[in-house]
Model the fold of this input.
Amino acid sequence: MSQFSSQAKPVISPPMDNWGFPTLCTDRLNLFYGSKQALDDITLSIPQGSITALIGPSGCGKTSFLYCLNRLTDLIPKCLVYGNVWLGDSNILHPKTDTIALRRRIGMVLQKPNPFPFSIWKNIAFPLKEHGIIERRKINGIVERVLTNVKLWDEVKDRLTASALRLSGGQKQRLCIARTLALAPEIILMDEPCSALDPISSGVVEDLIASLRGKYTVVIVTHNLAQARRIADYVGLFWVQSGCGRLIEFGPAQQIFQNPQHPITAEYINGQRG
Done:
């Protein structure tokens, strides 16, 4: 459940996109699982077209924060969200928000590849049909385009009717990313998308994520500091303080890794904490 806070505008001054609005920002965001507080007053802005990495030790609220951004928290029993999540000039926590349309605009790629138990082709076609795209020629064009975008088309074009469950782990994850791209989202959320993959597959997916820069806004949760250093434009460090997750520092990746402003950030980056 989301609790809407009716404010005219955020209390922060976020980076603006070409239309004068921040792509995505949170304002004093708090999350509870029952009586247990998991996030405490998270306020940050994510610039349009950037790759933002959320880092920090396990259990500090990174994934919970990610789920707030397209209201997947609505699907979690006894989960309460307070505060504001702004997409442009709209607060997505407003009770009248169309969450189906929202999740088309803000897609999600999960930690473990989760292709549907269908053919490769149907994995892309199914969500398109669910959103009203039914013309076969148009679907085929989208299937080829998104599979090409994730560097999977040449590997599967001759077996599109084969089960997606027969793909390798890396191929499954690229298929899931393609499935997300098929709905033309503005923002893509990724929850440790490489953690379940072997090093070679992880490298392929990481290169794919980097290629999305400028075309989409990407927010990725990762425990891999080297990965965050390689692909992120912005980095946010989450940490548990007083029993709940807090944002310790957020800024350009170069600053976070080379000149962190908070001692916890410096110690975590240098391997002295966490």
About this structure: The radius of gyration is 19 Å. Confidence is low (pLDDT under 50) at residues 4-17.
